[in-house]
Amino acid sequence: TLATPPSATDEAEDALHEILRRGEEDDVVELAEAALWAAWLPSGDEAVDVIMRQGLGLMGEGELAEATEEFAKVVQAAPQYAEGWNKRATAYFLAERFDESIADCAHVLELKPRHFGCLSGLGICHLRKGNEA
Predict the structure, then answer these.
(1) pLDDT for 96-132, tens place per residue?
(2) What are the boundaries of the signal sequence (predicted)?
C-alpha cells in the first residue's frame, strides 16, 4: 500500500513548530503559537465543534463539572481529535483533578506529540501533585 501523503495542515503545523523551535522575534512566535491553536481547535465535524464551543463556554464560566461532561461527549464522538482530550484535561486541571488531567494529556500526546499547551499543563499537574522529578 502507498503511504498517505502529509496533509496541508500537517505541513503548516510543521512550519509553525519550526518557527517556535527557532525562537524568532517575539511577535512572530506569538503569531505562530496563535496559528497552531487555531489549527488545533476545529475538529472537522460541525456537531463536535458545537459541543466543543458549549464546553469552552462552560469552562470560561467556571462550570467545570458541566464543561467536563461536554468534553467527554467530544472525546467519545471524536477520539482522534486531540483538542477534545486537551480541553477535558484543562477542565480537569482547573478542578484540581490532576490524575484525570494527566491521563487525558497522555491521549493528547499520542495524537499530537508536540502539543506545547498539553506538555505545559502536564508538567504543572505533576508539580501540583508534588512530583518535581
Answers:
(1) 999 999 999 999 999 999 998 999 999 999 999 987 6
(2) none
Sign (positive/negative) of CA torsion 32, 38, 41, 42?
negative
Which pLDDT band holds residue 6 (cuts at 50, 70, 90)?
Answer: very low
Q: Cα–Cα distance between 80 and 89 in angstroms, integer?
A: 15
Helix and strand tally (H, E) in the chain?
7, 0
Segments making up each domain of the chain, as ranges? 1-40, 44-133
How far apart are alpha carbons 109 and 119 in whole angstroms? 8
User: Class for domain 44-133, per CATH?
Assistant: mainly alpha
Mapped onto helix, strand or coil, the DSSP state of residue 132 is coil
Q: Which of these, 77, 72, 68, 80, lies nearest to 107 by C-alpha position?
A: 80
